[in-house]
Amino acid sequence: MGNKGAYLIAMLIALFAFLPPVSMAAESVEIVVTGVEDEARTNVQEALALPPGMVREGKVDRLWLERFARQAPDRVRTALQPFGYYNAQVETNLSEERGYFRLMARVSLGEPVRIAALDVALAGAGAGEGRLKDLVDVFPLEKGDILLQQPYDQAKGGLEAAAEELGFLDVRFTAHEIRIDPPRTSARIRLIMDTGERYFFDGATIEGAPDYPESFLRRYLSFKSGEPFSYSRLGQTQLNFNNSERFKEIIVTPHKGEATNNTIPVSVQLKQAYRRSLRPGLGYGTDTGGRFSLRYRDLNMLHRGHEYYANLFISQRLQGFASGYVIPDADDIRSSTSLQLNLQREETTYVSRLVALELDKNRSFGRGELGTAYIRLQRESFTIGSENSSSRLVLPGLRFTKDHYGDLIRPERGFRYFFDVRGTHQLIGSDVG
């Protein structure tokens, strides 16, 4: 072959080295379901979802897929049972064409199972509780209905949760049976809930915040000794402490194992946050120009839980200072008395200066409801060109605010409204009416 042959072989090797690799078409599997619609169809499709690893790097594990296809009828029938179909007929077929697999599931639902008898009852110390009796009365399934698993499970869970919220922590179901007769397409439900005895709060011990008075800390408890035990009240207590911004760690623990005479002690372990904070800020706005702000806050004045704050705002066109002192109510965390001072100077096409002093009395009227009675003393002066003018206001008023959220911890929906009624007259010291 000689040198020419060796040269030709070398050229061929180089040519093949630079040719793009030949790629094999990736194999795939399609699942097709017929004969069922809506949520039942979705459940069947989820039951027939391919296990991870069956298709790997474009190759289908055929033995695994064939075994999965043999199991498919049972998977489909099981997926249909929560919707009342216990007599469904399922035909499956696995086909292949050039690496493309199709698993076809044809479903004939048949007649759904209906409820022939329904017995939902209460027992124990809470059997007479109105809230629990109402839930039994509005149980979502009735005689003659299609047997649906989801409403049954939700109603059962709702009964248990309501009992626990009322303090029945040892609640249990002495009977929770669904007897199904597929040939007769009928079912019998028997659900008996025994509430057990009711538990109560046995007060609370609070540790870890020695700089705050005990009476001040107890304002954040959302329960009192002797009230029915409730986990949601423990959650609200945790939220109350957290929203105060005075603590960096809050652990609220019920000690059911230490309960005596069905009363449960609670411990609250706190870790104090820094009481004082100083927060500067820099920025620019088209309406104010360059601006600087400084906020100072002390959340434990006089070691009584009083709050003092001061805000300084300086910009090219607007300068202001606001300061306030808040005295919390002895019992309610949302009720307080506050005194506020505001100083402001603004320069636009004219110059205005404002001095205001406001005394507020805030009172909570329940969850999310806050009323405020206030009086505001205000003096404002203006310089427009070479002319000066001023006004003096004595302004009493009333405010009311209401907030409502479905879930305080994870709110998804809610609303807020407020109104403010105020007025003035020369008879009470204003120079305008």
Any key phrases for this structure?
single chain; 433 residues; alpha+beta; Ubiquitin-like (UB roll); 7 helices; 20 strands; elongated
Largest sheet: 9 strands, antiparallel
Percent helix: 10-25%
Q: Count of DSSP helices?
A: 7
CATH class of the largest domain: Mainly Beta
Radius of gyration: 36 Å
Explain the overall architecture.
- The chain is of the alpha+beta class and 433 residues long.
- The protein has four domains: 24-108, Ubiquitin-like (UB roll) (Roll); 114-194, membrane protein fhac (Ubiquitin-like (UB roll), Roll), CATH 3.10.20.310; 204-272, Ubiquitin-like (UB roll); 276-428, Porin (Beta Barrel), CATH 2.40.160.50.
- It contains seven helices and 20 strands.
- It has helices spanning 2-18, 38-47, 62-80, 130-137, 149-165, 214-218, 231-243, and strands at 28-34, 55-56, 59-60, 89-97, 100-108, 114-123, 172-181, 186-194, 200-207, 247-254, 263-272, 276-285, 289-301, 306-315, 318-328, 336-347, 351-366, 369-384, 387-405, 414-422.
- The chain has a nine-stranded antiparallel beta sheet with strand order 12-13-14-15-16-17-18-19-20, with no helix packed on it. Strands 1-5-4 form a three-stranded mixed beta sheet, covered by helices on one side.
- Strand 4 (89-97) and strand 5 (100-108) form a beta hairpin.
- Helix 4 packs antiparallel against helix 5.
